[in-house]
Amino acid sequence: MPFILKPIVLYVVAIILLRITGRRSLAQMTIAQTVMVISIGAIIVEPFADKDVAKTIIAASIYILLLLIFEYLEFHFHGFEKLAVGKEVIIIKDGNFVPENLKKLKITKTEIMTRVRQEGIPNLNYIEKGTLEPNGQFGFILKRGAEPIRVQDIEYIVNSILLEKHLIDKPIDLVEELKKQHL
């Protein structure tokens, strides 16, 4: 195989192999999965690990160029993005696991529950939709009423009531008021 084609073929094969293995981010991988990814990287680089520094630099440059091309294609062509990166997969719907998707993704309920607890969500009943994103991260959309209340929500409620009852002349900025109290 011509030298220039080698890194291109190896790069495409590596992406295909990594897509087959799943979509966990490096932080979420098990030790075995991390070793597998590092091993694939070593295998791909190995054909260029000879004493010719110029060939090694060219091969590394080709890998970088291929990465940039893939990122460009992913950004500009939705179909290519779905092929190369994938799309979100629903793993929780209306507070229940979606077993067929968990099986397909090879993710356990325990792994998901760990992430749910890390997000401060007390249980699955609070979740309208839970997804595994293409980058390996979990995403959660909470049911109505389960979302955390935000300062702007409290400001709206307080100001609406106080202004309506003519107890204040202008809206209160809660963040500024809290800053004043703590000084």
Automatic annotation (TrEMBL):
<feature type="transmembrane region" description="Helical">
    <location>
        <begin position="29"/>
        <end position="48"/>
    </location>
</feature>
<dbReference type="InterPro" id="IPR023090">
    <property type="entry name" value="UPF0702_alpha/beta_dom_sf"/>
</dbReference>
<keyword id="KW-0472">Membrane</keyword>
<keyword id="KW-0812">Transmembrane</keyword>
<feature type="domain" description="YetF C-terminal">
    <location>
        <begin position="76"/>
        <end position="164"/>
    </location>
</feature>
<dbReference type="GO" id="GO:0005886">
    <property type="term" value="C:plasma membrane"/>
</dbReference>
<feature type="transmembrane region" description="Helical">
    <location>
        <begin position="54"/>
        <end position="73"/>
    </location>
</feature>
<feature type="transmembrane region" description="Helical">
    <location>
        <begin position="6"/>
        <end position="22"/>
    </location>
</feature>
<protein>
    <submittedName>
        <fullName>DUF421 domain-containing protein</fullName>
    </submittedName>
</protein>
<dbReference type="InterPro" id="IPR007353">
    <property type="entry name" value="DUF421"/>
</dbReference>
<dbReference type="Pfam" id="PF04239">
    <property type="entry name" value="DUF421"/>
</dbReference>
<keyword id="KW-1003">Cell membrane</keyword>
<comment type="similarity">
    <text>Belongs to the UPF0702 family.</text>
</comment>
<keyword id="KW-1133">Transmembrane helix</keyword>
